[in-house]
Amino acid sequence: MTKKWTNWARNQSSNPHNIFEPKTEAEISDIVCLGVARRLKIRPIGSGHSFSSIGLTEGFLVSMESMNRIISIDRDRLRVTVGAGITISDLNIELHKIGFALPNLGDIDTQSLAGAIATGTHGTGIKYNSISSAIVGIRIVTGDGSVMDISESKNSDLLGPAKVSLGALGIITSVTLQCVPAFNLKILEFTAKLPEIISRFKFEELSADFVEFFWFPHTELAEIKICNKTASTNTRTRKFSSFVTNEVTRNFGFSLLNQFWLQFPNSVDPMVNSVIKENVRPERIDASHNIFCSKRRVKFLEMEYSVPRECLFEAFEAVQRVIEELSFPVTFPVEVRSLSADDIPLSMASERETGFIAVHLYNRVDPKDFFKRIEHIMDQFNGRPHWGKLHSLESAQLAKLYPRWSEFTEARKALDPDGHFTNSYLERVLGY
Ligand SMILES: Cc1cc2nc3c(=O)[nH]c(=O)nc-3n(C[C@H](O)[C@H](O)[C@H](O)COP(=O)(O)OP(=O)(O)OC[C@H]3O[C@@H](n4cnc5c(N)ncnc54)[C@H](O)[C@@H]3O)c2cc1C
Predict the structure, then answer these.
(1) How far apart are the first and last CA of the chain?
(2) Under CATH, which architecture does the 70-181 domain have?
(3) What mean pLDDT comes out for the span 182-193?
(4) Deepest in the core among 170, 291, 330, 367, taking most CB within 10 A?
(5) What's the pTM value of the predicted model, to 2 decimals?
């Protein structure tokens, strides 16, 4: 009997022929061989936190949840090898125990490691890169069921493509990560007028370690988060106020507001303007992963594009104009981040210093019209969409946006020439 699979945001679902939850690499090889023999497509899946249809299949869905162990630790070189299905949150805890950390993280930690790297999940920091950049080795079950080691010393030409693979090269069973010594971050967060926030972002981008901001649509206000590495230790006294802000205001209260706003959209403008005020939150110091990641419980839909860093604010202003012209309110903030360039073929920051703009809508609002207009803007700036977020681009358009595109297509020809791991999303974005 088929079982329905649904993603986190509840905007994507499918009825896979089978859902497997293998515990060993050998089982994964057997599943791939069985899928190939039965002419069913095979799709690995992580925590289902992608908004796009990237994880859907009517064939074999392979959940990586049980492949979640620490396999080995190299203390001299600060490297760990882990089961690909480990969640980022479990990974952070395990790394912290041994005095390691990942150099940079995204906003949340509930994704699986393999899912996060497959879509190029990133945080912010113009001197830093995405999670995938920390990869130094991968083991993968390819389209013929065999296992391949990919690292700096083995099959090294495939390492770049395998770092952001969209799940198109095979099923990654384990990942070796280059970590850094565990570090603490001090976070300063404040809400102020947008022009002040933008000039602070531009300044801090070059001087702070990690900086991002959120503009609240229909207001003149934005919130900035500035994080710096520090040798100081945790501020313990702020736990309660942090709980109130994160759980009560940003999750529970925000969820109620969005349900109310669905019924009374005209109330958004006056309400947000009376609720969101200029303020400075108490500074916090904590282990890096506790500062990078927060809880997001309100379900939303997201589109995120990367643009060349020098175009970031021109693109942002165009997004602002679109939002002001919409016939319905946007109740979620617009998020702005930046990242250093990397050399990963399908990374959103491939070969260019990058600015990111992410727009979000409550998941019960139809995003089509808004997101289409955002894509129109991003097209003018050679915008590259996040692979795990909503977008409508096709392979011919995408190939022109990525200078190392052919390295990825060559790798795919080598590892899965017959497209056993494909689905309709990959057919659209990769051509088969
Ligand atoms: C609330 C929320 C906040 C988010 N914040 C950020 C953010 O700050 N920055 C950012 O960049 N993104 C962010 N995202 C997007 C998210 O990080 C990505 O969509 C990520 O891919 C989700 O990981 P997952 O484990 O849920 O993967 P899934 O959505 O389950 O799968 C994604 C892809 O990974 C592939 N995959 C999974 N396991 C394997 C494997 N073992 N081998 C090969 N391929 C595999 C799948 O086939 C699929 O193609 C956010 C998403 C949500 C819902």
Answers:
(1) 28
(2) 2-Layer Sandwich (3.30)
(3) 97
(4) 170
(5) 0.95
